[in-house]
Amino acid sequence: MATLPLGPSPARREALTRRIRLLVAVTIAYNVVEAMVALTAGTIASSSALIGFGLDSVIEVSSAAAVAWQFSAREHTVREAREKAALRIISVSFFALAAYVAVDAVRALTGTGEADPSPVGIVIAALSLAVMPFLSAAQRRAGREIGSASAVADSKQTLLCTYLSAVLLAGLLLNATLGWTWADPVAALVIAGLAVKEGREAWRGRGCCAPTAHGQGCANSPVQ
Q: How far apart are CA 216 and CA 198, in angstroms?
């Protein structure tokens, strides 16, 4: 009795690969612009939250670049061989983001400096909150279908950027209208904890996916 192949067909796999390449390219381009705007606006307003958001965009670029490098290979076997290295880079990106956000939140809670209102920061945070969920969901679907733990992990990095956008937007608005300077750092500490959790899962190669030709998905075969 013939055994039905598991996972996407070669043609479907190539289509998914092209989709992931496109999504990663858009993510990198957007985050480069976002980083420049946020870092500039944060420096002008003396806003550690905005500067932290800009640095998060830099970290997101490194994560997306790792996936771009992995999927730049034309052969599926080469892409699979690069999976572990890409996951390591993404995992370290999560840990770096968690460390910075946590330190920045503690500084804010201890009253180290007060930020000025930043209309530009509010606009960039709102725009990211609108854009990032769609990029994350599209890449996560493609990554799960193709069975790539690194693509799924990078989509979670993008989703975390969405949470940071929401926190930043709330913090900037509350600071500008009510003077609630504590709201942003408290939420940021929660996000730092989530970043550590996602970083550990990426390091272990967890978080996906679809069945493969060998009969199991990457969720059942963590990276050692």
A: 22
Per-residue pLDDT of the chain (224 residues; tens, 9 = 90+): 444 455 677 788 888 888 888 888 898 899 899 999 988 988 888 777 777 788 778 878 887 888 888 777 777 777 777 778 878 887 888 788 788 878 877 877 776 656 677 888 899 989 999 998 998 999 899 888 888 777 887 888 788 888 888 888 888 888 778 877 676 677 777 778 877 887 887 787 654 444 444 434 443 333 33
Question: CA-CA distance, 189 to 98, in Å (whole number)?
Answer: 8
Residues 91 and 130: their CA atoms lie apart, in Å, by 25
Gap between the Cα atoms of 27 and 89, Å rounded:
16
HSE, side-chain direction, 13 A CA sphere, residue 214: 7
CA-closest candidate to residue 24, choices 192, 191, 150, 125: 150
